[in-house]
Design a protein that fits this description.
Layout lengths: L10 E2 L1 H8 L3 H10 L5 E2 L6 E4 H13 L7 H12 L1
Antiparallel strand pairs: 1-3, 2-3
Helix pairs in contact: 1-2
């Protein structure tokens, strides 16, 4: 039996993330679609949940003017090349 407390991750909705970034929800969905922001799809109709730690990573990089990561599409094309 472990006596260490478990770490609990908080999640944001697209609307909450948009409000925190002062953008509209479609902008957050575009960030998810392009791979700038990692999120979990919780329904087939497009509802997402964003880890607070992932949101903070994006917000910090925007605030510091750091370049954004490559879209997820480039990573999947690399994977496809390795598998073929």
């Amino acid at each position: 039996m472990s006596t260490e407390p478990q770490r609990v991750e908080k999640y944001l909705t697209v609307t909450e993330a948009a409000a925190a970034l002062s953008v509209c929800p479609p902008t957050v969905r575009k960030m998810i679609a392009t791979g700038r922001l990692s999120a979990y799809r919780i329904s087939p109709t497009g509802h997402y949940r964003i880890r607070l730690s992932e949101f903070n990573r994006l917000a910090d990089s925007i605030q510091n003017g750091q370049p954004q990561p490559e879209p997820a599409a480039s990573a999947s094309s690399d994977l496809e090349q390795l598998l073929s």
